[in-house]
Specification:
The structure holds two protein chains of two kinds. Chain A is an all-alpha fold. By secondary structure, chain B is mostly helical. Helix content of chain B is about 80%, strand content about 0%. The longest helix of chain B has about 40 residues. Classes of the chains: A mainly alpha, B mainly alpha. Chains A and B meet through helix 1, helix 3, helix 4, helix 5 and helix 6 of A and helix 1, helix 3, helix 4, helix 5 and helix 6 of B.
Chain lengths: ~260, ~270
């Protein structure tokens, strides 16, 4: 069995080349000026200064965070009750419901978003609302499934105990079920908020170019403009914001568990 | 928690399902539309399906998507499984650091991973095309394979492999005949995840592919600028394939189960 530890050597080489190096390339491009060659790096902070001094870009960043935040909130408001109803069904029906929620996720995201474009042509909606519809449609299943998993893990004996000890339905929900399902909500938030911040084809498909988000900026700078240094700087700013939000999420996720121990 | 669902709860779930399935039904319905209109259904026709199958761009996009998904699945499943087995035999520090590195593509937004690949390939002067897209797909699939194989390996009894070696197996035989069969389920679910990830990928493919090579997602993305009902036919085709696959996946175990029960009954009859 000793020899088996050597099985990871190829992957270590692969991971350095295919995972770490590309990430370092983004950092390198973000901090250098345009048109440099491999041997003549000219380091600069100009790309970042340009982003924050621009009259539009910080607003787009703010808007992306706002859209992601509101999308997440809507997903919790719509998804939690749905997951709660699922968790109360008979086990067989629960399995069917989970399958029904999972099935659309198998169909290509672009195809689903494309379908909404046709469907929304029947109603007059602002491009902002259309983007929200697409975002919620795309991310809601993740929230439902995460909350459902957390709810279905709750020991029914705890709920019986709460009732036996005199708690009514509202109190049982607020003091037993809700706190125990929060971990599902938190992982749901991670699965909704983070990809929503960087989403770029939903605003492009449904917003009709009127409602750009940070992901659209990155795509433009890489594919249309070809200014990769500035594009890398925008991606780095976004990646850092996402890392910070993830750190906060992990902290939030840990706190209730610590409270449990106490 | 289990109790009977109330009427308003049923209505709520029904509305949710309507929300989830309305766009899918819309696409299937309009793929049979006789006119180009995307809002008025004027009559039944299979014109868009004929146009789709005659469209070389669409057929090549489907071909590239399937080829890339199959190759990426095979390679990432093999590499991922081997790496996961190796990881379990290494010190914790190495395990943790590999896991951290693997987290990068899984936690980073797709667009960040994608431009990383793009900068990397172009800096090395590698001509982007199918090969670079495949490399990128393999790279983002392996971490998912490792993630689904790892728990199975952790639950293995290390003594069984030791016993195989003591009884004269070469390490390769021990791997193939003892370890792999025990972690088969993890490998299959890892391969399924890899296939879906690769098949559905858009963002990473868009940034790593080259001229003339598109997968289905890139084709749909490029074709939305004008009204093009063949996209409806293509979308509907994807819906049919996935529905059939999911039905087969869910029904085959049921049939097997029934057959097994029947065999058991026959066996019981024959011994009584």
């Amino acid at each position: 069995m000793k020899g088996f530890n050597r099985l990871i050597y190829p992957y270590i080489v692969w991971a350095i080349i295919m995972i770490i190096l590309p990430m370092l390339m983004i950092v390198l491009y973000a901090f250098t000026v345009k048109g440099n060659d491999v041997l003549t790096f000219q380091f600069t902070l100009e790309n970042f200064v340009r982003f924050f001094k621009d009259p539009i870009f910080p607003g787009v960043l703010w808007r992306s965070l706002k859209v992601a935040f509101i999308t997440t909130a809507i997903c919790i408001l719509l998804g939690y009750p749905c997951a709660y109803i699922f968790a109360k069904m008979k086990p067989n029906n629960q399995a069917v419901m989970v399958l029904l929620v999972t099935l659309p996720m198998w169909i290509n995201v672009l195809v689903r978003t494309y379908a909404w474009r046709g469907l929304l042509s029947y109603v007059e909606l602002s491009s902002e609302v259309r983007v929200y519809v697409g975002m919620v449609y795309n991310f809601l299943p993740f929230m439902i499934l995460q909350v459902y998993t957390a709810l279905s893990k709750i020991d029914p004996a705890l709920i019986t105990a709460a009732h036996d000890l005199g708690a009514n339905d509202t109190n049982t929900f607020l003091k037993v079920i809700l706190p125990l399902s929060l971990s599902g909500v938190v992982s749901g938030i991670t699965l909704v908020f983070l990809p929503a911040v960087s989403s770029f084809f939903i605003p492009k498909f449904l917003g009709g170019g009127q409602y750009l988000l940070i992901g659209n900026l990155i795509e433009d700078y890489f594919i249309q403009t070809g200014d990769w240094n500035f594009g890398s700087a925008i991606s780095l700013i976004m990646a850092i914001i996402i890392l910070i939000s993830m750190y906060i999420m992990r902290k939030l996720d840990r706190e209730p568990k610590e409270a449990e121990v106490n | 928690m289990e109790h009977k669902t109330k009427v308003h709860e049923r209505i709520y779930v029904a509305l949710m399902m309507l929300f989830f399935y309305l766009p899918i039904l819309y696409v299937v319905l309009f793929s049979f539309n006789a006119s180009r209109s995307l809002s008025k259904f004027t009559g039944f026709s299979i014109e868009w399906y004929e146009k789709m199958f005659a469209d070389r761009m669409i057929m090549s996009a489907i071909g590239y998507t399937v080829l890339c998904a199959v190759l990426a699945t095979i390679i990432s499943t093999i590499v991922g499984t081997i790496t996961a087995i190796g990881l379990s035999k290494n010190r914790r520090i190495i395990r943790e650091s590999i896991n951290q590195v693997n987290n990068l593509p899984m936690l980073n937004p797709d667009i960040v991973t994608a431009i990383g690949f793009m900068l990397f390939f172009t800096s090395l002067r590698i001509q982007t095309g199918f090969f670079t897209m495949l490399l990128a797909h393999i790279a983002f699939c392996i971490p998912y394979v490792i993630l689904s194989v790892m728990p199975k390996i952790r639950s293995l009894d290390p003594n069984i492999a030791e016993a195989a070696l003591d009884l004269g197996c070469t390490p390769l035989q021990a791997l193939w005949k003892v370890i792999i069969p025990q972690i088969k389920e993890g490998i299959i679910s890892g391969a399924l995840v890899a296939f879906t990830m690769s098949f559905d990928d858009f963002v990473i493919s868009l940034f790593t592919t080259g001229p003339g090579v598109s997968n289905i997602s890139i084709y749909v993305y490029g074709a939305i600028k004008r009204v093009n009902p063949t996209i409806n036919a293509l979308s509907a085709l994807i819906v049919y394939v996935i529905t059939i696959v999911l039905i087969v996946i869910n029904v085959v175990p049921m049939i097997k189960e029934r057959r097994r029960e029947k065999n058991e009954q026959n066996f019981e009859k024959s011994i009584s």
